[in-house]
Each structure stands twice: as structure tokens, then as C-alpha cells.
Amino acid sequence: MSDDDLDIDIDDLERRMDGALTSLRTDLNSLRTGRASASMLEPIMVDAYGAPTPLNQVGTVNVPEPRMITLAIWDKSLVGKVEKAIRSSGLGINPVVDGTLLRLPIPELNEERRRELTKVASQYAENARVAIRNVRRDGMDKLKKAKAAGMGEDEQKMWSEEIQSLTDTFVKKVDSVVEAKQAEIMQV
């Protein structure tokens, strides 16, 4: 087995770990921090024309103020369905309907809700760490197979340390991203 084969594996492991970090950032963007953000609505799906559809595909999402999101629905017949989807999303937002325009006022978060959201952020971070460790485990398994195929001890140790270093780097990135989000949530 050549070094080039393992180099590709390291790049693949790094790409997969980066995918876990990207997924974490997406999950954290959906958490409400008391400030309006169009990404808060991304996980909400509405039953449009018989299929679950993301909100940004049934209307235009805008953030005109720090505590307000507006959603201009393109098809008048979907206004009721969109309103129901937002109310049942668990975001704690009550839309105000004005024709085909929905105004979504973002209420202040109380202390208890802020603490709950920091716990949710921690859970998202732990899921990302587990995903990164699973990628590390896959890399180590490939390394064991390479050793069985004739890789030397020194070479295996070097690759093992590189995989562990990559894992540590990504776990630190996860920690810093979640700490920043928790600070943002707790900010009054």
C-alpha cells in the first residue's frame, strides 16, 4: 500500500469531519437567540401541493428588523398552511397574517428558555463530536487493515498520530463553535 493511498484517506477523513462541523453550524443556526434570522425557518416544512416543501420555496423570507421576520407567500392558498406550520414548529413564534404577508415577531427569551437552548446547543455539539469520532474510528480501522497488508509499525504510528491530531483539531473547532453560540444565546 503506497503513501498516496493513505494520503487520500486523510483528505477524505478531513472532508467527512468538516461535514460534521458544517452540519453542527446548520443545526445551531436554527436555534432562536432572540434575534431574527432567516435560517431559523429552514427546518420548517409546509405541505404545499401534496409534498413537504421548505418555507423559502413557497415565499420570500426577509428580516427587516432585528426582532421581525416577514414571509411573503407567493400562492394565496398556502397562507393558512404556512401559518399552521410555523405555529406547530416549536419555535414559539406566532405569525401575524396580513393578506399574503406573514409577520413573525421574535419575542424576548426568558432566562429559563435561554438555559434550555444552551442545553440543546450542547446536545448538537455532542452529536457532532460523536460523528467526528466515528470518522476517526473508520480511519483507524483502515489503518489496521493496511498494517495487516504489510505496513510497518513506524508508518502505522505516524498515520495514527495524524488521524488523532485531525480529530483533536475538529473537536476543538466544535467546542469553540458551540461556546460562541451559547454565549450568543445567553446574551440579553
From TrEMBL:
Coiled-coil region(s): none
Keywords, sorted A to Z: Cytoplasm, Protein biosynthesis
Cross-referenced InterPro entries: Ribosome_recyc_fac, Ribosome_recyc_fac_dom, RRF_sf
Database matches in Pfam families: RRF
CDD domains named among the record's database cross-references: RRF
Subcellular locations according to the entry: Cytoplasm
Span of domain Ribosome recycling factor: 24-186
Family: Belongs to the RRF family.
PANTHER family (UniProt xref): MITOCHONDRIAL RIBOSOME RECYCLING FACTOR PSEUDO 1 (PTHR20982:SF3), RIBOSOME RECYCLING FACTOR (PTHR20982)
NCBIfam families: frr
Protein function: Responsible for the release of ribosomes from messenger RNA at the termination of protein biosynthesis. May increase the efficiency of translation by recycling ribosomes from one round of translation to another.
Name of the protein in question: Ribosome-recycling factor
